[in-house]
Amino acid sequence: MYKELVTDVFFDLDHTLWDFEKNSALTFEKIFKENELEVNLERFLKIYTPINLAYWKLYREEKISKPELRYARLRNTFDQLSITVEDELISTLSVQYIEHLSTFNYLVPNTLSILDYLYPKYRLHIITNGFQEVQQKKLENASIAAYFEHVIDSETAGVKKPNPYIFTYSLEKAAVAPEKAIMIGDNLEADVLGARAVGLHTLHFNVHKDPSHQHGEIIDDLIEIKAYL
C-alpha cells in the first residue's frame, strides 16, 4: 500500500520492537532478589503494569516529572499490594530498575525478520518517549542499533509524543517530507494520532488489544508490515 510512497520508516521502541513487558519482569525479578524483597512477581506485575501505563500517560501529558514517574509507579503498586516498603528502598529499586532494564534484550516476535526485510528498502529510524540514558543501551544490547539511522528520544527533542513537534523534529533530522514517511507504534494516542497530526502515514501495532478504530491501518503482528511496505 505504501511501497511507492514511503522512503523512511519511523518505529516506536518499547512494546513495538523491544519486549518491554518481558524485559521489565526479568528486571524486577533480579532487583527484588538482590534486595531480599519477598514479592510474588506475578501478583506484583498484575498491579504494576496498568499503573505504569497510567503514569506514563501522565508523563506524556507533562503532568508529572521523570523522578515522580519512577517513584510513584512503585509506591502506588506496593501500597495496593499492602506491602510495606520504605521510601529509601523504593528509591533504590527505582535506580536499580533503570540500571538493569537495558541488560535484558528480548525483542517482540518477528522484530529481526521485519527489520531485515525493511533495511535494504527503507531508511529506518526510532522515535521514543523512553529515557535517553536507557534507550540507546536497549538498542545496542539487543543488537538492533545498526538498523537505525536516527534515534530521536523525547528528552533530546524537548517534548514527548504525541506532541507534534517531536514528529516534525524527527522529519527534519531525517530530511524527509511527512508524506514520504510512516510511523509504526503500539500506542494509538502517542504514535498514531501524534504522527497523523503532522501528515505521516501510520500503522498501529495493536499489541495491547485496543478497540478497533478508524485512525489508519491496524496490525497484530510485525510480520504484517510486509503487506504495506
UniProtKB/TrEMBL annotation:
Q: Which Pfam families does the entry mention?
A: HAD_2
Q: What are this entry's molecular-function GO terms?
A: 5'-nucleotidase activity
Do you know which Gene3D superfamilies this protein is assigned to?
HAD superfamily/HAD-like (3.40.50.1000), Putative phosphatase, domain 2 (1.10.150.240)
Reading the lineage from the top rank, the first entry is: Bacteria
InterPro entries linked to this entry: HAD-like_sf, HAD-SF_hydro_IA, HAD-SF_hydro_IA_YjjG/PynA, HAD_2, HAD_sf, PGP-like_dom2, Pyrimidine_5'-ntase_YjjG
* The name this protein goes by in its record: YjjG family noncanonical pyrimidine nucleotidase
